[in-house]
């Protein structure tokens, strides 16, 4: 059977190379450029006829990536690709999952509709499903979610001595407990209130009895980093040690990483779903397994 051909969108070349190796796949070449007037030019410079094509595009800053993705999928089909899939280690637009104010677009739905019309299948890592139970409520294509709580837990167990896992909010309780279980450590859950995109307040219950432990703040996403910064401030006020911050997806909105470092945290660690200097947990073997599952091939 012909192995799949992976095409990286700009910014996802490293992840695509890792997946190509894990899958024993072929690496293809895609050109994505901008015309001087801002329009997008794409070209697939590899033969794709009668084979599985996998576009690799992590979807932080999604607006600038979406059109190249749509055009590349279309070009692959035109050139005779059998199926066109998408590996989006970070999947955007899941947080606007209801209308908070009259007239707002529910962008999680709109984005899912566009992607479902673009590719035949999708694999992603720990999507931020808050009010949705699964991607199937949004996506009409096959959409597989890879869960990496065990990878976070394993990293923590290996790298942090005597850890205390601290989950961001009540909704994350089950996930935080799964990380704690894999790390063989106790967990506490923060009480969090978000006032706006950049203003968050948290309280830290019953932390002082764990003063001899190293706090490990975990979250699925670091965006503005306000959640982690606020939590770190509370821990400091309660006399706990500077926390290790661990997240699945480090989006790091402008200035967020510096602000988090300046908040006196011990270190910041993320999974390699979005390229960043904090990437220390390789979750691509799990992604490769999920891709094999979707394609129906054995390891
Ligand atoms: C929200 O529900 C998520 O789990 C994260 O806590 C949130 O996205 C973090 O955002 P920020 O870094 O902007 O505080």
The proportion of residues forming helix, as a percent range, comes to 25-40%
Largest sheet: 6 strands, parallel
Helix-strand pattern, N to C? Answer: EHEEEEHEHEEHEHEEEEHEHEEH
Number of helical runs?
A: 8
Structural class: alpha/beta
Instruction: Find the count of extended strands (DSSP E, 2+ residues).
Output: 16
Strand content: 25-35%
Bound molecules: ribose-5-phosphate
The largest beta-sheet arranges its strands as 2-1-5-6-7-8
Low-pLDDT stretches are none
Give the terminus-to-terminus CA distance. 13 Å
Query: Overall mean pLDDT score?
Result: 94
- Tell me, briefly, the overall form: globular
Radius of gyration: 20 Å
Q: Oligomeric state of the chains?
A: single chain
Structure report:
By secondary structure, this protein is an alpha/beta fold. Helices cover 31% and strands 26% of the residues. It contains eight helices and 16 strands. The chain has helices at 13-23, 62-78, 107-118, 149-159, 173-183, 226-237, 256-262, 284-295, and strands at residues 5-8, 26-27, 30-34, 40-44, 52-56, 83-88, 121-125, 142-146, 163-167, 187-189, 191-194, 200-203, 214-222, 244-250, 267-271, 279-281. Strands 2-1-5-6-7-8 form a six-stranded parallel sheet, with helices on both faces. Strands 10-9-13-14-15-16 form a six-stranded parallel sheet, sandwiched between helices. Strands 3-4 form a two-stranded antiparallel sheet. Helix 2 (62-78) links the parallel strand 5 and strand 6. Helix 1 (13-23) crosses helix 8. The chain is globular, with a radius of gyration of 20 Å. The two termini are 13 Å apart. The model has no long low-confidence stretch (mean pLDDT 94).
């Amino acid at each position: 059977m012909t192995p799949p051909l992976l095409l990286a969108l700009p910014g996802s070349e490293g992840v695509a190379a890792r997946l190509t190796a894990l899958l024993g796949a072929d690496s293809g070449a895609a050109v994505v450029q901008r015309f001087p007037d801002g329009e997008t030019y794409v070209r697939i410079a590899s033969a794709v006829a009668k084979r599985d094509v996998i576009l690799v595009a992590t979807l932080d800053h999604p607006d600038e990536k979406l059109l190249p993705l749509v055009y590349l999928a279309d070009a692959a089909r035109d050139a005779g690709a059998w199926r066109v899939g998408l590996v989006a280690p970070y999947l955007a637009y899941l947080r606007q999952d209801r209308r908070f104010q009259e007239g707002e677009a529910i962008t999680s739905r709109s984005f899912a509709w566009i992607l479902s019309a673009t590719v035949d299948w999708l694999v992603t890592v720990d999507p931020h499903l808050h009010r949705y139970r699964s991607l199937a409520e949004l996506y009409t294509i096959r959409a597989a979610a890879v869960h990496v709580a065990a990878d976070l837990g394993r990293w923590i167990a290996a790298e942090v001595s005597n850890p205390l896992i601290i989950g961001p909010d009540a909704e994350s309780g089950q996930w935080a407990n799964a990380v704690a279980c894999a790390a063989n450590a106790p967990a506490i859950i923060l009480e969090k209130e978000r006032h706006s995109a950049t203003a968050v307040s948290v309280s830290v219950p019953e932390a002082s009895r764990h003063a001899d432990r190293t706090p490990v703040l975990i979250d699925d996403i670091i965006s503005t980093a306000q959640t982690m910064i606020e939590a770190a401030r509370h821990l400091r006020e309660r006399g706990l040690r500077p926390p290790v911050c661990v997240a699945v997806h480090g989006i790091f909105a402008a200035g967020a990483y510096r602000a988090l470092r300046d908040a006196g945290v011990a270190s910041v660690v993320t999974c390699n779903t979005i390229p960043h200097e904090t990437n220390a947990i390789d979750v691509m073997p799990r992604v490769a397994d999920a891709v094999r599952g979707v394609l129906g091939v054995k390891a």
